[in-house]
Amino acid sequence: MTVAAQNEIASKALALPKEARERLAHQLLESLDPSEEKISRKEWNRLWKAELEKRLEEMESGKVKGIPAAKVMAELRAKYG
Closest by alpha carbon to 24, among 40, 9, 37? Predict the structure, then answer.
């Protein structure tokens, strides 16, 4: 699929009402899970909270350095136009 086609799909998806976008996002995320084992929303939230806390600790301790959002976006635009 071309970048233009992906952009067109994304544009149409973003024009959907909030509830429809939420359902679509959930469907897309579900499609990325290669395992047969599904976890509950509560467990999903617990795992993400633990991951976010770990990343925050790494940032606060200086173990990792953040990249300004403007730089990330510029790099993505340059790569994917």
Answer: 9
Rounded CA-CA distance 5/29 in Å is 20
Using CA atoms, how far apart are residues 27 and 43, in angstroms rounded to an integer?
Answer: 18
Q: Which residues contact 19 (CB under 8 A, 6 or more apart)?
A: none
Contact 80, 10 (CB under 8 A): no
Query: Are 24 and 13 contacting, i.e. CB atoms less than 8 angstroms apart?
Result: yes
Per-domain residue ranges of the chain? 1-38, 39-81
pTM, 2 dp:
0.46
Place of tokens 């340059």: 78
pLDDT, averaged across the chain: 90
